[in-house]
Design goal:
heterodimer, A: 313 residues, ABC transporter involved in vitamin B12 uptake, BtuC, 4-stranded antiparallel beta sheet, 11 helices, 4 strands, 71% helix, B: 367 residues, mainly alpha, 3-stranded antiparallel beta sheet, globular
């Protein structure tokens, strides 16, 4: 196989598309970490649930607009996150739990285990895949051609589903950044992540901010899954590779860093795309696609555990 | 004459029950097989309890170590013609060496970072096993020679029971020796332990090596018994199961974790098909379409539960963590054998200090 500039460009651009969704998911995880100080090992399961909510909504209400279904998925995963935080994580913040660090790891891992099999019990183990959310208009401008399912710019093909998912992800990312940086509640979240006691002194309830941050984090995971249910075949354990990607990204970008999550997501998207596109044996390349990110991950953890933008340990 | 305490009678009863099981289950080879598997899980869960509950290294790579030994032994047998026994020995050593390397790499990592790193390690291992078809057989799995020249389950049963008891005895010896004290000190406070002169590097690595070797030994022997290993055994759900077993049994108790594993393994097998009386079966078959809608099914003898049995244990795992930090089985043992000594653990005192000055929560966690 000859490697041309166009082929490389194709890999990089498609990597950026998928990377923007990784970034959205990682932003959720990094938000949870920066406010609650924990990593949720159930992040992939919220992603999985978001996808299923959209799939079943669209299957039940065939006229429903996919964007509304994605919003509904966000709401459902937000509520799951809030409920779990109130029941299982808040006792930690109130000091009712011995060894909170170990508890947080195990209880979110337990949640992942529970949700994975719960969904498998409800929907069964067979894969589901939603129809394409949006069809592109048919256009032929020579350098730009499009059919319902693919857009070709200068010979580089993009799948319509992935384009739509990436567009939604970018909008959500911008909305989230606006919310955190500009609104009062968002500033409250930042304040709690910087100094809980000082935030409490100026009238921010850290416990409520914990719940909000966890709910928003799981919501972002749910919505990233929701945008991808027409791209991948959905199974109850689809969240496992997705969450390991989110782990890779937040460690690479630095735990708790928002720009780190965004940049890390794009980097991992491109690395995966290049890695699997450039390996000579296509069978192995596909199998190793997820391993590239994990390899970077192991290296970052060993060489520079604070990541690109991390706070000092 | 001194009265024999009740708890020793109970313990002896359990032991005799385990020894007599092949006779009691004479016509039920299937349950003998399940019991053998239960001991395999008990070895995994108790060694994980030593690593996590004693030494505080919350590793998610335990299943990977188990599989490394099995694959090493299987591949040595297939390509170099090694006998299963030498394969098991070699596999256990390989698991120990990999444990040494991983333990060394993890020295700087604590808690969340360690958990993340070991998950990454386990996933990479699973992906490699899946991809390297020439070496491992890929998703189709690898056939392994039988360890013993027999079709009966009984010798395997005693072998596995013996290995479980030996590894428990060894781990108890380790935990009650100086090593155990050092392990615990590392879990409670690494910096303070180092300041008191505990050689952190040595004991962290030792914990990894010992527990990986026990997991590897269990895995290699078990897969030479089943005769087959496939990467589907390496999914994260199996690791969750080991954790559920250890937590529900009692993460700080080796015997608790082992009993938890045995209890959960038997429960899972039994729950696979909940038996109903034969007279109820026609009614059940009439309800079949409704049951299938909610993910249940109807088998020959009762209700098939499929994924729902795991849901039950997932929920139990979370509730145990939240409300019974010492597990469900360990407190019973504790009550029978120790009569509430050791109530005030270091952890409790640390917690009391933290409640007094609640500044430590948040930013400092998860390093």
């Amino acid at each position: 196989m000859e490697i041309t500039g166009q082929y490389l460009m194709n890999l990089v651009l498609n990597g950026l598309l998928i990377g923007s969704i990784y970034a959205l998911m990682a932003l959720g995880l990094t938000l949870i970490f920066s406010v609650l100080g924990i990593v949720s090992f159930a992040h992939g399961e919220h992603y999985m649930i978001g996808g299923y909510v959209v799939y079943f909504l669209l299957e039940t209400f065939t006229n429903l607009h996919p964007l509304l279904a994605i919003l509904a998925a966000g709401l459902v995963t937000f509520l799951i996150g809030v409920l779990f935080e109130r029941l299982f994580l808040q006792p930690m913040a109130r000091g009712e739990i011995e060894r909170p660090g170990e508890y947080a790891i195990l209880v979110t891992f337990g949640l992942a285990f529970f949700l994975q099999y719960l969904v498998q019990g409800i929907v069964g183990p067979h894969s589901k895949r939603a129809d394409r959310f949006f069809d592109l208009p048919s256009v032929d401008l020579g350098w730009l051609t499009s059919t319902a399912g693919t857009l070709k710019v200068g010979g580089i093909p993009f799948s319509a589903s992935r384009l739509a998912a990436a567009a939604i992800a970018v909008i959500l990312l911008l909305a989230m950044i606006y919310f955190i940086k500009r609104t009062w509640v968002g500033k409250g979240l930042q304040a709690v992540s910087q100094d809980r006691n000082a935030a409490a002194v100026v009238g921010i309830n850290p416990l409520n901010m914990n719940t909000l941050a966890f709910g928003l984090g799981t919501m972002l995971a749910g919505m990233s899954g929701a945008t991808l249910v027409d791209v991948f075949a959905w199974v109850p354990w689809i969240g496992v590779p997705a969450s390991s990607k989110a782990f890779v990204i937040i460690v690479l970008g630095g735990m708790g860093s928002m720009p780190g999550a965004l940049l890390g997501g794009l980097i991992i998207g491109v690395v995966e795309s290049l890695g699997s596109g450039l390996l000579p044996d296509p069978g192995k390349a596909l199998a190793y696609k997820d391993a590239f990110g994990l390899l970077i991950f192991a290296l970052v953890l060993l060489v520079k555990p604070t990541g690109l933008f991390g706070r000092k340990l | 004459m001194k009265r024999v305490p009740l708890q020793w009678i109970l313990a002896a009863g359990l032991f005799i029950l385990a020894l007599a099981a092949p006779v009691l289950l004479k016509d039920q080879q299937y349950w003998l097989f399940i019991a053998t598997q239960a001991y395999f899980w008990a070895m995994l869960a108790s060694s994980w309890a030593l690593l996590a509950g004693y030494a505080g290294q919350f590793s998610f790579g335990h299943i990977a170590f188990m599989a490394i030994a099995s694959y090493a032994s299987g591949i040595l047998g297939r390509d170099l013609g090694w006998s299963p026994v030498s394969g098991v020995v070699a596999g256990t050593l390989v698991a120990g060496v990999v444990g040494l390397v991983i333990g060394y790499l993890c020295l700087r990592l604590r808690r969340t970072y360690l958990a993340l790193f070991t998950i990454a390690f386990a996933e990479i291992f699973r992906l490699v096993v899946n991809a390297e078809i020439d070496l491992t057989g890929g998703p189709l799995g690898l056939y392994m020679d039988y360890l013993l020249d027999t079709t009966s389950y009984i010798p395997y049963y005693y072998l596995m029971l013996g290995l479980l008891l030996a590894s428990l005895a060894f781990m108890y010896w380790l935990a009650s020796s100086r090593f155990g004290l050092f392990f615990r000190s590392i879990r409670e406070d690494e910096v303070a332990a180092a300041a008191m002169g505990v050689h952190i590097v040595r004991y962290k690595i030792l914990a990894f090596v010992v527990t990986s070797m026990i997991a590897g030994l269990a895995g290699a022997v078990d897969h030479h018994f089943i005769g087959f290993i496939a990467p589907s055994e390496l999914i994260i759900g199996r690791m969750s199961l080991v954790i559920a077993m250890a937590v529900i049994g009692g993460i700080e108790s080796l015997i608790g974790a082992a009993l938890g594993a045995i209890f959960i393994h038997f429960s899972l097998e039994w729950l696979q098909q909940i038996p109903v009386p034969a007279s109820m079966m026609p009614k059940l078959i009439a309800m079949q379409p409704m049951l299938e809608k909610i993910g249940l099914g109807v088998g020959e003898r009762g209700i098939m539960t499929y994924a729902w049995r795991m849901v039950a244990f997932g929920l139990l795992l979370m509730l145990t963590l939240r409300f019974w930090r010492n597990g469900l089985i360990h407190p019973i043992i504790d009550r029978l054998f120790r009569q509430r000594v050791r109530k005030e653990t270091v952890a409790k005192r640390v917690q009391a200090a933290e409640v007094a000055s609640p500044t430590t929560f948040g930013g400092t966690e998860g390093r």
